[in-house]
């Protein structure tokens, strides 16, 4: 999957905004939004929040986990974090510090992920529980890991080949 | 908006039929689930024409409404953004199905041929036409560029053998939507033993597609 | 997003071959040392080192995999296939000691593919060969992964030059994951660029104009 598609999925998440305009409730296909009143916080999907922000129609309230102290505790959505840091950094306290921290945490987590991938292959395991992995993390290693597991599977089925040789197809 | 769904709602649920009427929001969710499942499953999944048709209907209905709105309307631009997003998912979903049909066409057609009566069809009527045409074009092409110059006994290629089958033993990433108990995990090597795992709601796993493919069709797990 | 308009058929890996895979077609051209176990009448012209009309029994020669596989029969001995040295015990010991030191491109480049294909020919060593292929792959996995996931925006030719063709393919898929992520992170992913097809087309047009 393209990272932009992971980002697309992150844009579906909900974020709180403080609008500076008024508008009645909107009946979208995916659900109702609003009403919007100046100064009153309201929940909207990220794609709308970013659009309103770009048109200077709102301020985005950063999600509460988006703080230096909290980022290290939970696996955060890289897609959402980057979207907010890119398009709404003026609404995020200590944005630069968070940006550096996010990068460091990402590098650590990816290094750990590779370690687990290697042990999954080495031990020839059949199942792994990965509750802490975010979609962006899965996505960076997906093709490589799945292709490798496939190759390994085929090489392992060679071991059974020993007994049933002799009939090859015509190709 | 719910009036637009009245003629779709009754047959919209593919699996089990507990939900008789879907809200438009649930419908969009179904489309997104189908999209990701199709993107990540190694084989072509059963078609979800009923979802596709209902979404199309929703979009047409909404676009017709927007025609009547005057330019510069604040709400209209938000509606248009949402329509664009839904359209993107819809086309990406249909495109990934077409790509799989191109990759596996002889097997897809074979499966469709051997399907028992009453079983849901793998392909939508449009996809079926596409697959047949793709098959015919491939055969014509192979004949024209090479086969007709071969000795008579070597002029056929059995496409079912020549085109690789989807590998159901591929691993997939998944998230559990409905908890499952006692899923049997087959051993990978001779010195391992088979064991069972419980899939808790919301948990994520990496395992073989073959083990959980029925759960994908039933909607109990979501490929990610 | 996925701009690829043509999806090449992947090689089969293991004992299966994919008929429409270019990699597998190249693989079947790999030459194997064989010994004829009967006379091949009137085919002497194929063996340039002899003047006789027939290929006599006991002749040692090299045949491509596809031909050896086609002629090989278990019941009636037509030819026997000799293991290329990289699959023999001596080399297997080297692989067990440290699979990462071996230049699989030079020894291959179809080390895994050809090795798997050899299992079609009867040999008491087959189980050991199959085991060696698997263990070599596992032993080299970490290095293939790390090099493919660390090399961003640099010349990768040194990293891939010792990889077998299968590992090279994996290296590429690792790189595409890394590059996709990196350019997304830098915000380049959202910019549209002309496809390489269009660029090449323009280049060609330029050349037409110049000539």
UniProtKB/TrEMBL annotation, chain A:
Domain GINS subunit: residue ranges: 75-152
Keyword match Nucleus: yes
Location(s) in or outside the cell: Nucleus
Keyword Oxidoreductase included in the entry's annotation: no
Biological processes per GO annotation: DNA replication; double-strand break repair via break-induced replication
Pfam family, one: PSF2_N
Record keywords: DNA replication, Nucleus
Superkingdom of the organism of origin: Eukaryota
InterPro entries: GINS_A, GINS_bundle-like_dom_sf, GINS_Psf2, PSF2_N
Main location per the UniProt record: nucleus
GO CC annotations on file: GINS complex
Every DNA replication complex GINS protein PSF2 N-terminal domain range: 2-61
Known partners and oligomeric status: Component of the GINS complex.
Similarity-based family: Belongs to the GINS2/PSF2 family.
Protein name according to UniProt: DNA replication complex GINS protein PSF2
Organism (species): Cynoglossus semilaevis (Tongue sole)
From TrEMBL, chain B:
Gene Ontology annotations for the cellular component aspect, listed alphabetically: GINS complex
Signal sequence region: none
Residue span(s) of domain GINS subunit: 76-144
Domain DNA replication complex GINS protein SLD5 C-terminal: 166-224
Residue numbers spanned by region Disordered: 1-20
Subcellular locations according to the entry: Chromosome; Nucleus
Species name: Cynoglossus semilaevis
This protein's UniProt keywords: Chromosome, DNA replication, Nucleus
SUPFAM superfamilies linked: GINS helical bundle-like, PriA/YqbF domain
Entry function: Required for initiation of chromosomal DNA replication. Core component of CDC45-MCM-GINS (CMG) helicase, the molecular machine that unwinds template DNA during replication, and around which the replisome is built.
Family: Belongs to the GINS4/SLD5 family.
CDD domains registered for this protein in UniProt: GINS_A_Sld5, GINS_B_Sld5
Keyword Cell wall biogenesis/degradation: no
PANTHER family with a match to the protein in the record: DNA REPLICATION COMPLEX GINS PROTEIN SLD5 (PTHR21206:SF0), SLD5 PROTEIN (PTHR21206)
Predominant place of localization: nucleus
Gene Ontology BP terms: DNA-templated DNA replication; double-strand break repair via break-induced replication
The protein's name: DNA replication complex GINS protein SLD5
UniProtKB/TrEMBL annotation, chain C:
Main location: nucleus
Cellular component per GO, a single term: GINS complex
Record note on quaternary structure: Component of the GINS complex.
Pfam families in alphabetical order: PSF3_N, Sld5
Alphabetic keyword roster: DNA replication, Nucleus
The protein, known as: DNA replication complex GINS protein PSF3
Subcellular location: Nucleus
Residue span(s) of domain DNA replication complex GINS protein PSF3 N-terminal: 21-72
Gene Ontology BP, a term: mitotic DNA replication initiation
Domain GINS subunit: 93-185
Function: Required for correct functioning of the GINS complex, a complex that plays an essential role in the initiation of DNA replication, and progression of DNA replication forks. GINS complex is a core component of CDC45-MCM-GINS (CMG) helicase, the molecular machine that unwinds template DNA during replication, and around which the replisome is built.
Protein family per UniProt: Belongs to the GINS3/PSF3 family.
InterPro entries documented for this protein: GINS_A (IPR021151), GINS_bundle-like_dom_sf (IPR036224), GINS_Psf3 (IPR010492), GINS_Psf3_sf (IPR038437), PSF3_N (IPR055221)
PANTHER family found in the cross-reference section: DNA REPLICATION COMPLEX GINS PROTEIN PSF3
């Amino acid at each position: 999957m393209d990272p932009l598609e992971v980002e697309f999925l992150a844009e579906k998440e909900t974020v709180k905004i403080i609008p500076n305009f008024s508008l009645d409730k909107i009946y979208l296909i995916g659900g109702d939004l609003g009403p919007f009143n100046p100064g009153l916080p309201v929940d909207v999907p990220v794609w709308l929040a970013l659009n309103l922000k770009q048109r200077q129609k709102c301020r985005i309230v950063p999600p509460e986990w988006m703080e230096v102290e909290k980022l290290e505790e939970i696996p955060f959505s890289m897609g959402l974090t980057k979207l907010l840091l890119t398009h709404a950094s003026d609404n995020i306290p200590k944005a630069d510090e968070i940006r550096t921290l996010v990068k460091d945490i990402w590098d650590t987590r990816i290094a750990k992920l590779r370690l687990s991938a290697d042990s999954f292959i080495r031990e020839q395991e059949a199942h792994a529980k990965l509750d802490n992995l975010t979609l962006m993390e899965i996505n960076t290693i997906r093709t490589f890991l799945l292709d490798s597991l496939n190759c390994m599977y085929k090489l392992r089925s060679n071991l059974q080949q020993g007994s049933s040789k002799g009939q090859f197809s015509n190709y | 908006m719910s009036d637009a769904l009245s003629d779709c709602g009754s047959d919209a649920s593919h699996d089990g039929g507990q939900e008789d009427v879907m809200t438009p929001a649930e419908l969009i969710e179904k489309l997104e689930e189908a999209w990701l499942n199709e993107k990540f499953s190694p084989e072509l999944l059963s078609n979800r024409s009923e979802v596709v048709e209902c979404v199309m209907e929703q979009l047409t209905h909404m676009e017709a409404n927007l025609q009547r709105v005057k330019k510069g309307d604040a709400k209209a631009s938000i509606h248009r953004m949402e329509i664009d997003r839904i359209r993107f998912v819809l086309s990406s979903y249909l495109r990934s199905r077409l790509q799989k049909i191109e990759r596996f066409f002889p097997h897809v057609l074979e499966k469709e041929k051997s399907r028992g009566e009453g079983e849901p069809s793998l392909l939508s009527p449009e996809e079926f036409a596409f697959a047949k045409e793709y098959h015919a074009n491939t055969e014509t092409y192979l004949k024209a560029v090479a086969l007709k110059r071969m000795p008579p006994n070597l002029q056929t290629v059995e496409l079912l053998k020549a085109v690789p089958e989807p590998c159901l033993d591929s691993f997939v990433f998944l998230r559990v939507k409905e908890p499952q108990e006692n899923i049997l995990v087959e051993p990978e090597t001779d010195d391992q033993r088979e064991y069972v795992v419980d899939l808790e709601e919301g948990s994520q796993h990496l395992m073989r597609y073959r083990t959980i493919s029925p759960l994908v069709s039933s909607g109990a797990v979501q490929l990610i | 997003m996925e701009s690829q308009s043509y999806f090449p058929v992947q090689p089969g890996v293991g004992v299966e071959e994919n008929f429409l895979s270019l990699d597998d077609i190249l693989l079947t051209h790999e030459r194997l040392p064989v010994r004829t176990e009967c006379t091949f009448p009137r085919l002497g012209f194929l063996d340039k080192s002899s003047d006789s009309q027939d290929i006599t029994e006991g002749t040692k020669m090299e045949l491509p995999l596809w031909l050896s596989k086609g002629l090989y029969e278990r019941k009636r001995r037509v030819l026997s296939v000799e293991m290329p040295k990289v699959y023999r015990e001596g080399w297997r010991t080297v692989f067990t000691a440290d699979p990462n030191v071996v230049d699989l491109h030079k020894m291959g480049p179809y080390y895994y593919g050809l090795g798997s294909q050899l299992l079609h020919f009867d040999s008491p060593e087959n189980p050991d060969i199959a085991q060696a292929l698997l263990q070599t792959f596992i032993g080299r996995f970490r290095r293939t992964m790390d090099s493919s996931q660390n090399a961003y925006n640099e010349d990768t030719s040194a990293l891939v030059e010792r990889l077998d063709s299968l590992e090279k393919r994996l290296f590429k898929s690792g790189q595409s994951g890394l590059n996709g992520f990196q350019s997304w992170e830098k915000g380049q992913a959202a910019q549209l660029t002309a496809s390489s097809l269009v660029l090449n087309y323009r280049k060609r047009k330029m050349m037409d104009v110049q000539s």
